[in-house]
Amino acid sequence: MHFRKLSEYFDKIENVSSRLEMTSILAELFKETPGEEIARVIYFSQGQLAPPYKSIEIGMGEKFVEDAIAKGSGYTKKEVHEKFKQIGDLGNVAEEFLKKKKQESLFSTELTIGKIFENLLKIAKTSGSGSQGLKTKLLAELLNNASPVEARYIVRIPLGKLRLGVGDPTIMDAFAINLSEEAKSNKKLVAEVEKQLKEKNEEKRKQELDRKIRVRVREIIEDKYNIHSDLGVIAETLITKGLKGLEKIHIKPGIPIRPTLAERLPSSKEIIKKLGKCGVEAKYDGFRLAVHKNEKEVTIFSRRQENVTEMFPELIEAVRTQIKAKGAIFEGEALAFNEETKEYYPFQITIQRKRKYGIKEMAEEFPLTLFCFDLLYVDGENLMPLPFKERREKLKSIIGRGKRIALTDSIVTDDPKKVDEYFNENIESGLEGIIAKDLNAPYIAGARKFSWIKLKRSYKGELSDTVDTVIIGFFKGKGHRTQFGLGALLTAVYDEKDGMFRSIAKIGTGMKEDDLKELHKILSKISEDNKPKNVDSEIKPDFWVSPKYVVEAIADEITKSPIHTAGRGKGKEGFALRFPRMVKLRQDKTPEQATTVLEIEKMFKNQKNVKLSE
Ligand code: ATP
């Protein structure tokens, strides 16, 4: 496939505003893409070269991209820079200059997706002294042969500013459209769906059937993606082998599984009412890590599925010596633990272990302990469908003696009073609260379900849980804050329904001066003049930013709001955070892992329940 064709599709996507239109353009693109190229098309459409867990960052600074545009278009660096200052998007600068150049020379080789991929991969893998020159050369070579619209995207990918707004949900929706026909020939699936139909009128019933089949296909795709976090592989299977082909994809050490997540309930009484006799565990405040062991090879993934293996040498060593199984996938929370005083260090100490340099020294000073809470796979067997109590037994049986790997502390009870006592004990020893677990539930990857329910410390007059919001814009500082360039953040929560980020709070407190400076530094790199396509907000900040950074915020309560768009519907007002304060940046979460609109609705209801019962 030629990159020109893909660029034309990208251009179409960029020019539509509704998600529905975007999905149908993607569906068309996927129909035209051959199996051997679909994975790259998927990665490109999200501005990547590989699934996030492979941690391949192309990362080229603006300065070097400007140089490459100059080389590839024949204009001077100064001209490129001036134009950039004027129009603010290097992709558009490249496009404009190449338009002019193309009138003069019409001879160029057609760029294939393979060639673009090859050069961008080389750019990503080149490092060390003199590497910038080589990177610039590789990009210029592409631009030299590019058409203007191709140049727009060739430049935006290494800058990490593709601006298409294509998220995982849209890609899966597009495949669901394309595979619905195949699903209709699957008698079992159709019979299952027919049972749920409500319409009586024949025509409407047919439409309902079509819609429900599409929803079912989408679920089948997502279920697979949840246990095999590589949309490229999923897409390739769908194109070459159809929906049925997915049955052959199984969990495998080395490929991350999307984490199961906890629901919230306001009290231990409600937790017991919901779960009955359940496991109750300490809620540790550290990093959630997923450990994959395959013989001697050990890989560790973060909450957002980055490969963080290199950061935790002491845990790697411990997995090799303490874990008795040859192959295993298990999860735990890692935190710095003071052996002498038998106390947990605060999160501020643990977070320092997230670093690229000085790893060995820090591992010696503040070694982590991994408190394990689930086992998903052991020696060729997928344990995810088993009831939690069985998984926990097996987990216990594979952890051998040693200091660095332990089982989470837990009790089993059906008495709310015992839950409260246990909760208080944990708070006293410096932990965050508790997580109750349904003893009979399977491991539900990628979903927030009642198989886990968290209960955290509640401060008087405050929400009992923090909200993870996504930064969608910022305001210039006023008065004393003018000097920092940033005075407040506009933040949003994630709407899973359609992949949009909807506004919920303007946060202007909780940040220290250093935070303001740091936020300004990272946000101005990704600021935009126009509202990003996946953002829904009526409040207009001084600068928009595309959803990337997650900020944990605490607030007094959730209120109804006429100005915020989170949760807004026909005749329904949105939600806002009342007196929001920033707690910290949550580097361990992707924007899609932030709090969702649905969670806000539930938290709003929970908060009413608490008030009524007081
Ligand atoms: P939070 O900000 O409350 O940690 P979250 O959105 O990161 O929430 P949730 O699924 O809502 O994740 O809450 C569960 C989180 O608690 C897990 O992601 C994990 O990092 C952490 N955790 C700490 N102790 C445990 C435990 N014993 N069992 C499961 N998760 C635990």
UniProtKB/TrEMBL annotation:
Residues 361-495 form the ATP-dependent DNA ligase family profile domain. Its cofactor is Mg(2+). ATP binds at E281, R288, R303, E333, F373, R448, K454. Keywords: ATP-binding, Cell cycle, Cell division, Coiled coil, DNA damage, DNA recombination, DNA repair, DNA replication, Ligase, Magnesium, Metal-binding, Nucleotide-binding. The keyword Magnesium applies. Its EC number is 6.5.1.1. This is DNA ligase. It comes from Candidatus Iainarchaeum sp. The gene is lig.
